[in-house]
Write a structure and sequence with these properties.
This protein is an alpha/beta fold. The protein contains 46 helices and 14 strands. The strands form four sheets. The protein has a five-stranded mixed beta sheet, sandwiched between helices.
């Protein structure tokens, strides 16, 4: 069944709910789907479709264009009968459904509840076709009609609920309608009456106050008489003195009347006064001395009649001049019309926000808050502050343990995925907030005030209903004061205590640094890592203690050494950051250096900030690091669900958490040796991103591992048109040759690449050539090439002077396979002392145990059991400092070598099995040596089962140290021992071809294999 979504953003989804690409993702063809969805059963003539979408096409050309578009659509929808009819086009309802047709059907039969449920936002929100003005006018007409029908259905449901004795239900419906029409007096009265009927007079009075402020600011008119009359009746209801004071404070009355109302309503001793002796502007209803606390709106009226106004030192809020006609009019309230009539329609959709599906701990609110559009008016200096204010608000609010706050970075990512990169409309923020699982959005306006102060107008919008929950006006001398004050007001509204200290002390006190940082986040979200790195570096130059700037400066590095150095610096600075930022920095650093604490930090991120993708990614990484491959997959799937919009974007440069998660899912199944599942997930990914190289590369890798070489070869041609990276193309060609045994062709390809001007290509070609020579048993040539590679790559991978770098790793393997064990062991030991500057103990331990393991293997081959015993102890102790489970198990491998040398085969088998991390992707030498022990124990079939996964691993990385040729040779021996000469012959033949031109010892083994294969 195909599903067309037109209410909200236009999309088309297939049977599995994933977006369809290809023809169905092109604007004019998508427009055809929208037209037919709206037309419903009656359909739409070809002539009208042409007139709306291709108005300039003549008769014959237009008919041909439409026919081609319909053909492409039917093909892409994988249903030739999805669009039927010759003159009148329509969908086959058995194959295609749409939300707009369901909405229209519900309206026609009077099912208002079903109609509201189907309405998920404005019709074709944000969809536009250049050069099709008639289509745009048609969209506007249909959008208005549908919006009006939706509003009518909401009001009908609200009135019906109240008549049926369900005032709480009536409140919910009215709140949705109030989100659509915040300036509509009839709607406001309806909502107030519902609140009153539900027994919540305070909420009714608060709604009147919100309405009054909006009407005054936006329309510069007094509030509707009916709203005022109802508010007065509710305000003077007995037993509500504090509510009456708060409501009176929000009205535009004279100062004397307001003061008298406060004095009369107050239950304190000042109630007997004719007017308060002092008016204290503060955030709550406490009292200070002989004064009455009131909100900022009363300050001007009080001052006009000579009543002293006090702003406590603890409160940076200054009374906002909203009660005078001579004030500078705030453009913020113009959002009431824009957001109220357009965005709130989208807000009132009935899709369950993701945040409501996330369980909260017993001490936490279920509220998930997102910071929306902060617009700025005034001079250019003020305009640059809007971004920092939004980010600072999100960071500051996240300090509350009772709130879940969507980070600014997450909002930026979602904004660019839900809209075009340049679209910063209010509707775009709403869409992003809902995708993030937010239940409430805070937006507002920042502008300069006379005297150099700043004013910030904020409002809280309920994302489920679109209703405005409250409005605030705050003044301060700088952005940090504004954010501190706004944080206190917003947290109080959620019943959370104000956090200690200023946000400036937890981020930076430099506005310039924060502005550069925010610009860096935007640039990074757009995929320009180089420019983002410059901006984060500039922010650090403004304030070298800015932890988050240091963190993203580190993440923007392209090489591991500077990345480790920068993130370690960020980690040191994070002591003064907020909890969320401290956890993010520590998790990012822990992933890079394989720190043992990664799992605990990741779980804390998931628990405290489940609406952020980073925590779920890190939790998946932690499980992979612990060897719990299948257990990691649900965490990665969660990221895919949260960031699924990434798959709809065509620009592959920007960060894509869902793409990373899909890659990790495929990898998890691969290292768990479940290639059928890995292939299924890789194919799913290609359907999600058919024009991106990464999923096709992942599928190619799975097919190669599974031995489906013909399919992989066919895919290589397709990849060449998508992936233009010459290094990747060279690696694929060489890897395919190594796996299939076509080593002559592989060598020819990599030798040709040695002549490339591109340094990266030459570096890869040298690496692949060494592999090819080793597979062929040409160890003399391999050693020579490995020495050249070491000289070439050493500057790129330099370590402390006098110590061999990791560039010598191919030489270690080549010396070992040439039988020069002592030299291989000495070189591996030298590399084990190499370490990146400022690397963490876990990172250093990981590198050291890996190299010492190669040394132990070489010493065991040389028969030096005393040295192996000493190394086994060292590897065991050092390995425990690494957070990666493979490193912690390598000591078992070294002990297995020692036990085998001592002829304790049973003990050696147990040790090798204890050392195993992943059968296809661990340390392949473990598979090999365990298989040797099993053959010595006369258990060949078990040896075969141990060796076969090694051929399903990579040809490099942890599989680098045992060639496939050696694995085939041992498999041939195992099949012979198992009494299966026919199976053994296949592997003997592989070995004979590979080592035919090898060094003398390998040529002898090739000849022996040839004799076995021909028997």
């Amino acid at each position: 069944m195909i599903r067309i979504h037109t209410l909200g953003c236009l999309s088309v989804r297939g049977d599995n709910g994933t977006p369809l690409a290809g023809a169905a993702a092109q604007p004019r063809r998508m427009a055809i789907l929208a037209l037919l969805a709206r037309a419903g059963e009656r359909g739409m003539s070809r002539e009208k479709v042409l007139a709306l979408i291709w108005p300039d096409a003549d008769g014959e050309r237009g008919s041909r264009t439409l026919a081609q578009a319909l053909y492409a659509l039917r093909k892409d929808l994988v249903a030739d009968d999805a669009i039927v009819g010759s003159k009148e086009l329509r969908f086959d309802p058995a194959l295609v459904t749409s939300d707009v047709s369901e909405f229209a059907s519900a309206v026609a039969r009077g099912d208002d509840a079903r109609a509201v449920a189907a309405y998920d936002g404005p019709f074709l929100d944000g969809f536009h076709i250049a050069g099709a003005e008639e289509f745009s006018r048609w969209v506007e007409r249909e959008r208005m009609t549908l919006a009006q029908e939706h509003a009518r259905a909401l009001e009908s449901l609200a009135r019906r609920a109240l008549a049926d004795g369900d005032p709480a239900g009536s409140v919910d419906w009215w709140k949705r309608l109030a989100g659509l029409e915040p300036l509509n007096a009839r709607v406001t009265v309806g909502l107030m009456e519902a609140f009153a009927a539900a027994g919540d007079r305070a909420a009714a009075i608060k709604q009147a106050r919100i309405y009054e402020l909006l009407v005054e600011q936006e329309l510069d008119l007094p509030p509707d008489k009916e709203v005022r009359a109802l508010a007065d009746r509710l305000r003077h209801t007995p037993n509500e003195p504090q509510r009456a004071m708060a409501a009176a404070a929000g009205r535009s009355a004279s100062a004397a009347t307001a003061a008298a109302s406060i004095a009369t309503a107050s239950a304190s001793p000042v109630a007997t006064m004719s007017a308060p002796s002092v008016l204290v502007i503060a955030r709550d209803e406490s009292r200070l001395g002989n004064g009455v606390v009131a909100p900022p709106e009363l300050a001007n009226e009080a001052e006009a009649t000579g009543i002293p106004v006090v702003v406590p030192a603890a409160s940076p809020v200054r009374a906002a001049p909203v009660g005078t006609r001579a004030r500078l009019r705030s453009p913020f309230w113009s959002l009431a019309a824009v957001v109220g009539s357009v965005v709130a329609v989208w807000l009132a959709g009935t899709r369950t926000p993701l945040g409501r599906l996330i369980g909260a701990s017993p001490n936490e609110s279920t509220a998930v808050v997102a910071i929306g559009r902060i617009v700025s008016y005034g001079d250019s200096a003020t305009a640059t502050l809007a971004g920092p204010v939004a980010d600072l608000l999100a960071t500051s609010l996240a300090r509350s343990p009772g709130l879940r706050v969507v980070s600014a970075g997450r909002m930026l990512d979602l904004m660019r995925r839900t809209r075009t990169p340049d679209d910063t409309s209010a509707a775009g923020f709403v869409t992003a907030a809902r995708e993030a699982g937010a239940t409430e959005m805070i937006d507002g306006t920042l502008y300069a005030r006379p005297g150099g102060t700043l004013r910030l107008d904020l409002r809280r919008v309920d994302l489920a209903t679109g209703s405005i929950d409250d409005v605030y006006s705050i003044e301060g001398s700088d952005v940090f004061t504004l954010v501190d004050s706004g944080t206190a007001r917003l947290m109080a509204a959620h019943g959370s205590p104000r956090p200690l200290g200023s946000i400036a002390g937890l981020t930076t006190r430099s506005v310039a640094a924060y502005s550069l940082y925010v610009e860096g986040l935007k640039t990074l979200a757009d995929g320009d890592v180089v420019a983002a790195e410059r901006l984060f570096g500039a922010a650090l130059r403004e304030d070298s203690t800015f932890a988050m700037a240091a963190y993203y400066y580190g993440r923007s590095a392209t090489l591991r050494v500077p990345m480790v150095y920068r993130l370690t610096h960020a980690l040191r600075l994070s002591a003064n950051a907020t909890e969320r930022e401290r956890l993010m920095i520590r998790a990012g650093w822990a992933v890079l250096v394989f720190a043992p604490e990664l799992g605990a930090v990741a779980d804390s991120l998931v628990t405290r900030y489940p609406q952020e993708t980073e925590g779920h990614l890190y939790a998946g990484y932690a499980r992979m690091q612990d060897g719990e491959f299948i257990a990691a997959i649900p965490h990665f799937r969660r990221v895919v669900e949260m960031d699924s919009l990434s798959f709809t974007r065509s620009d592959s440069a920007a960060a894509c958490d869902a793409c990373t998660a899909m890659f990790q899912i495929v990898t998890a199944y691969e290292v768990a040796d479940s290639l059928a599942a890995a292939e299924r997930e890789a194919r799913r990914w290609t359907r999600l991103q058919p024009k991106t190289a990464a999923p096709w590369t992942a599928l190619w890798d799975v097919l190669e591992r599974a031995g489906k070489f013909a399919e992989a070869a066919a895919l290589t041609e397709q990849l060449s048109s998508i992936d233009q990276d010459p290094v990747a193309a060279l690696t694929r060609a060489s890897t395919h040759a190594l796996r299939t045994g076509d080593l002559t062709t592989g060598e020819r390809v990599v030798r040709a690449a040695l002549q490339a001007a591109n340094t990266r290509v030459r570096n890869e070609a040298m690496w692949q050539l060494i592999l090819s020579l080793r597979y062929q048993g040409r160890m003399t040539d391999a050693i020579a090439e490995a020495r050249r590679y070491r000289t070439f790559a050493q500057p790129l991978d330099s370590g402390p002077p006098g110590i061999a770098s990791t560039a010598a790793a191919p030489l270690v393997a080549s010396l070992y396979e040439a039988g020069r064990y002592r030299e291989a062991a000495a070189l591996a030991d030298s590399i084990s002392h190499w370490g990146a500057p400022d690397d963490a103990p876990s990172g250093w331990a990981r590198e050291r145990v890996w190299r010492l393991t190669h040394a132990a293997r070489a010493l065991a081959a040389a028969g030096d059991t005393a040295a192996v015993a000493a190394l086994a102890d060292t590897i065991t102790v050092v390995g425990q400092r690494s957070g990666h489970v493979r490193d912690r198990r390598l000591g078992h491998y070294a002990r297995g070598l020692l036990l085998r040398a001592r002829k304790d085969l049973v003990g050696a088998e147990a040790a090798f099995r204890a050392a195993m991390f992943s059968w296809p992707a661990g340390y392949t030498a473990t598979n090999y040596d365990l298989a040797v022990v099993l053959l010595e124990l006369d258990r060949p079939r078990e040896a075969i089962a141990v060796l076969q996964p090694a051929l399903r691993g990579k040809v490099d990385a942890s599989n680098f140290y045992v060639t496939h040729t050696e694995t085939h040779a041992l498999l041939a021996q195992a099949w012979d021992a198992a009494g299966r000469p026919d199976s053994a012959a296949v592997h003997h033949a592989w070995v004979a071809r590979a080592w035919e031109n090898g060094d003398a010892p390998y040529r002898e083994r090739a000849a022996l294999a040839r004799r076995h294969s021909s028997r």
